[in-house]
Amino acid sequence: MQNLPREDIDCLSPPERLALAYATRRGRAAWEAFFLFERRLAETARPGREPLMIQLRLAWWRDRLAEPVERWPVSEPTLARLHAWGEHRSHLSSLVDGWEASVVGEDGGAALSSARVNAFAALAALLGETSLDDVRRAAQDLVSPSEATARSPRLSRAMRPLAVLRALAVRSAQGRPATPLADMAHVIRIGILGR
Prior knowledge:
The chain has helices at residues 14-20, 28-44, 51-66, 77-82, 93-104, 110-126, 133-143, 160-173, 180-193. The protein is mostly helical. Helix 1 runs antiparallel to helix 8 and helix 3 (51-66) packs antiparallel against helix 5 (93-104). The radius of gyration is 17 Å and the shape is globular. This is Phytoene synthase.
């Protein structure tokens, strides 16, 4: 895992890169893999592409997640990073299904939102979390920030990246004016305290 290219991390959004700064050493590889996998799926399903081609590409990802890692192509860097998920990688199939539903379905993104919440819960389980209720609440706030509750759930050290992403999404959804110093102080507090 140490020899994987750094440049693929550079494609992550600034909030994702900031969130990674709060990942534990043990959990960083799993967080990176999760963010990069979501990026690949979003790129695959981006608007303007032919729906049939999107479905074929998403099916490729679904097939890879279902097969043993020894059969994965070595030339695919995102798959190389997904080794960090071990047997938990099967939980990522719902993300593929969610992206497919968002492209060809008429569910308004509900399947993708649900899949993202479940993927964060799977990531928490991978990192040793046993109580997933707060993780699910924070993930739900992240995917639907305009419906977020006023009080954020307290997340463990392993899930601080989710706490940071949730805080940034909720602040943005509330339409607060950008105040870089106050925003940074808020993110640092969330990253340190988990709430």
